[in-house]
Amino acid sequence: MRFGSNMTSPFYALCAIGFAVEAMSQGGSVVKPGTEAAVVRYQIADPERSVAFYTHELGFKLQQATGPFASVTRGQLMLILSGPGTSGARPMPDGRKQSAGGWNRIVLYVDNLNEQIERLKKVGVHFRNNLEVGPGGSQILIDDPDGNPIELHEAPKPAKT
Fold it and tell me: DSSP label at 100?
């Protein structure tokens, strides 16, 4: 089952920011989410490859794709995909270059983590670690095609009484 194929199953995207961001795409149109949206920017190398990964494998919907810029959404989360040449990928004033990877990540909640792990392994998704289980649930880290981390998380099941 693909993410989002069962619209009644809980699948929530969390991130640490919840404010609106305006971004001019290369085509000049404005991407402006509502004030309730959470927005995350990932640096990517190939917009077409990244859009395909997020829409086909993780259930995001394409919002906009213009040249090296794309944005995809899942619920209240907007993910900005900044390819080479976009304003969001320019070097810092001190010369440091923005790049994909690191450890900050979006967290996607799923109903059946083991099922998703098996499905993603079959399509060759890279896993950063093995399944971790703790009192807050189960989680595993995957990489998008550019090495940006995504945490898949299954909340603990309620105790049966």
Answer: S
Residues of the chain with pLDDT under 50: 1-29
In sequence order, what are the residues at sequence separation of 6 or more whose Cβ sits closer than 8 angstroms to the Cβ of residue 154? 109, 110, 111, 112, 113, 137, 138, 139
Radius of gyration for the alpha carbons in the chain, expressed in angstroms and rounded: 16
Residue 114 neighbours by CB distance under 10 Å: 12
Query: Mind listing the domains of the chain with CATH numbers?
Result: 13-154 (3.10.180.10)
Query: How far is residue 156's CA from residue 98's CA, in Å, rounded to a whole number?
Result: 36
Nearest residue to 99 via CA among 83, 118, 111: 83
**Cα–Cα distance measured from residue 141 to residue 145, given in angstroms and rounded to the nearest whole number:** 13
Predicted model pTM: 0.72
Report whether 49 contacts 148 (CB < 8 A).
no
